[in-house]
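About this split. The held-out portion is used to measure sequence recovery: a designer receives only the structure tokens and must propose an amino acid at every position. Recovery is the fraction of positions where the proposal matches the reference. Here is one held-out target exactly as it appears in the evaluation file.
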């Protein structure tokens, strides 16, 4: 079996200790999608791979490939995103962002857009321009949109009208008008997956998911609308991906 070398630009989403001195890295790369790479001796203080093997390290990675196995040979760090570690809620949110990205990314399938979104989110978490829940909401909705699960926000998913949109079906991925909600659930309770949404929140969601938007983080809402939007985006992502995240539970534990 032949041995080859390859290089890529990537972000370490997860770094797991293995044995006495090694690490196993999950790296999202621009060229190859998600990769699992062994970093031999990376936990040693003398290792040249130590800094590049930390979670959130972003840079150039060169690895050796033999069959299905990959070993990190060399790396240079362009950005460590060290500032996300300055407080526990920020770090917890960064870990959640990495978990969602890992869930959405695929082995061997390049996803430059998802990598760009994750990097931009980590840059936002390093600063103080936006509240953590604002950053989280924008990332969640943008991530599901990049992953192909964007909600239909322009019209009612049942009758097609564009007025009086008052609910979002987080499972079906569509908005519903007030009339259709009353008709569909006249004799039953509205399911927990169907959430009330205001016109302001809808406008924010349309802005976040629009291909025309250059910076989806750059908007502001009144505090009550912002809090509701954060809840909607979280529930939408969880419903669409149909899974939970321990990192999300931990973020909620420590953020207050």
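Reference sequence for scoring:
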């Amino acid at each position: 079996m032949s041995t080859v070398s390859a290089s890529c630009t990537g972000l370490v989403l997860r770094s797991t200790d293995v044995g006495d001195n090694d690490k196993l890295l999950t790296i999202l790369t621009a060229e190859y999608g998600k990769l699992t790479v062994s970093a031999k001796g990376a936990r040693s203080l003398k290792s040249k791979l130590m800094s590049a093997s930390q979670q959130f390290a972003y840079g150039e990675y060169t690895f050796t490939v033999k069959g299905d196995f990959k070993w990190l040979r060399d790396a240079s760090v362009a950005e460590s995103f060290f500032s996300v570690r300055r407080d526990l809620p920020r770090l917890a949110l960064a870990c959640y962002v990495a978990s969602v990205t890992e869930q959405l990314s695929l082995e061997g399938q390049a996803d430059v857009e998802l990598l760009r979104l994750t990097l931009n989110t980590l840059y936002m978490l390093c600063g103080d321009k936006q509240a953590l829940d604002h950053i989280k909401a924008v990332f969640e909705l943008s991530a599901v949109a990049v992953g192909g699960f964007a909600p239909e926000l322009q019209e009612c998913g049942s009758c097609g009208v564009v007025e009086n949109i008052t609910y979002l079906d987080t499972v079906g991925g569509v908005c519903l008008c007030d009339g259709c909600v009353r008709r569909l659930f006249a004799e039953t309770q509205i399911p927990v997956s169907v959430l009330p949404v205001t016109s302001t929140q809808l406008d924010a969601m349309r802005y976040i998911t629009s291909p025309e938007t250059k910076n989806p983080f750059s908007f502001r809402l009144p505090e009550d609308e912002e809090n509701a939007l954060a809840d909607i985006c979280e529930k939408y992502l969880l419903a669409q991906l149909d899974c939970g995240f321990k990192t999300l539970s931990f973020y909620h534990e420590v953020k207050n």
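Annotator remark: The first strand starts at residue 4 and ends at 18.
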